[in-house]
């Protein structure tokens, strides 16, 4: 994210020096949007909240002022890692690739290597899928030599906006590293060689994950063993083996060893199933019942609990970092810590451990 931000800063400066107001305005809009995405509940962002709010205003992104670039690089560029890109990392990687080409164009520098990388990436898009086929004209454009012979900034931006949300389908590097495997086994234990190897998945690891998720989605309403998740029951070892068998029946090309690499424990499988199926509302409210009976809660505290339960139902869990963002901070700027006493908050976090989900931090 930092690289995208810095590329757009550089493009904005170049456009300004070349008196290209259209490109300049596009970059100002995109820079402002990125700054607005910085989460103010992050400690690092909180420390620079004044700078964040100042430069979020487009009129302050004025590169004719000597200190604008210096302040952006010093105060905000490194904070871009805290933008939440969960589920959208391939889109931002594509943005990074395209902005690199755009910057080189304005600098009048050769960038055949980046162009080739973009062509190869777009060529991986599976055109047998309807949503990809709908962009066939755009894909053909990128793959044609005519496009690159007469490439324009506007043309690249159009490609970026058309294809960025599809790029997760082109993630096909197969470079995921698995645990060490034993190779070159000899009868002499002293001659056994241990090496870390990469397992190459024909469609990439992400594609396999999506394939498995689709299978689980299809059987989740018909298999009692999976229904246990909705009511908050944990999976036994026997349940775990049964679900792996169900997946293999649906798709014989998936072997047990591969599935165990995706789901090394029942807890990991439970988390995936919970995300797909959701949890029963009665089960969620029951977890809070003892807490509600134990304390004489105020109207504000009851409102917070209601908000909390609704978020868990809507998102199939709760990420603790989200507790310090809207809508929870609408009741108190310190969220749960401001609405409840420290003892009550500690008890609530123990309850919330039942619903905790993790999120990927931006790179």
General description of the model:
By secondary structure, the protein is mainly alpha-helical. Helices cover 58% and strands 2% of the residues. The chain has helices at residues 2-17, 21-36, 43-46, 49-56, 66-76, 89-107, 112-123, 130-133, 136-143, 145-149, 153-163, 205-219, 224-227, 237-250, 256-262, 266-277, 281-294, 299-315, 336-339, 342-352, and strands at residues 181-183, 193-195. Strands 1-2 form a two-stranded antiparallel ribbon. Helix 1 (2-17) packs antiparallel against helix 2 (21-36) and helix 6 (89-107) runs antiparallel to helix 11. The chain starts with a helix and ends in an 11-residue tail after the last helix.
Notable features of this structure?
363 residues; mainly alpha; two-stranded antiparallel ribbon; flat
Describe the biggest sheet?
2 strands, antiparallel
- The SS-based structural class is mainly alpha
| Number of contiguous helices | 20
Number of distinct beta strands: 2
Q: Name the average pLDDT.
A: 76
User: Strand order across the biggest sheet?
Assistant: 1-2
Radius of gyration: 25 Å
Distance between the termini: 7 Å
Relative strand content: under 5%
Net shape: flat
* Contiguous uncertain segments of 5+ residues: 172-186, 194-204
Roughly what percent helix? 55-70%
């Amino acid at each position: 994210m930092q690289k995208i931000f810095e590329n757009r800063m550089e493009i904005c400066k170049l456009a300004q020096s070349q008196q290209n107001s259209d490109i300049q305005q596009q970059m100002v809009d995109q820079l402002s949007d990125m700054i607005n995405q910085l989460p103010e509940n992050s400690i690092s962002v909180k420390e620079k909240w004044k700078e964040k709010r100042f430069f979020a205003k487009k009129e302050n992104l004025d590169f004719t002022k000597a200190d604008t670039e210096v302040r952006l690089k010093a105060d905000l560029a490194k904070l871009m890692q805290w933008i939440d890109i969960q589920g959208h990392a391939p889109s931002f990687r594509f943005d990074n690739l395209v902005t690199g080409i755009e910057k080189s164009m304005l600098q009048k520098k050769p960038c055949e290597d980046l162009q080739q990388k973009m062509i190869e990436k777009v060529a991986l898009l599976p055109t047998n899928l309807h949503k990809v086929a709908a962009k066939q004209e755009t894909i053909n454009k990128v793959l044609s030599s005519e496009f690159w012979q007469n490439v324009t900034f506007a043309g690249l931006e159009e490609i970026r906006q058309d294809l960025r949300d599809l790029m997760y389908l082109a993630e096909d590097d197969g470079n995921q590293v698995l645990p060490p495997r034993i190779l070159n086994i000899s009868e002499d234990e002293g001659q056994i060689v241990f090496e870390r190897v990469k397992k190459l998945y024909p469609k990439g690891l992400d594609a396999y994950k999506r394939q498995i998720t689709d299978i689980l989605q299809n059987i989740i309403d018909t298999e009692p063993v999976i229904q246990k998740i909705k009511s908050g029951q944990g999976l036994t070892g026997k349940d775990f083996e049964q679900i792996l068998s169900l997946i293999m029946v649906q798709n014989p090309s998936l072997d047990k060893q591969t599935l165990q690499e995706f789901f090394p424990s029942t807890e990991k499988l439970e988390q995936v199933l919970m995300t797909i199926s959701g949890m029963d509302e009665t089960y969620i409210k029951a977890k809070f019942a003892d807490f509600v009976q134990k304390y004489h809660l105020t109207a504000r505290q009851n409102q917070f609990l209601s908000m909390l339960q609704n978020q868990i139902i809507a998102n199939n869990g709760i990420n603790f970092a989200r507790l310090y963002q809207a809508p929870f901070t609408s009741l108190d700027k310190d969220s749960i810590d401001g609405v409840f006493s420290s003892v009550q908050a500690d008890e609530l976090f123990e309850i919330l451990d039942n619903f905790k989900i993790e999120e990927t931090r931006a790179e």
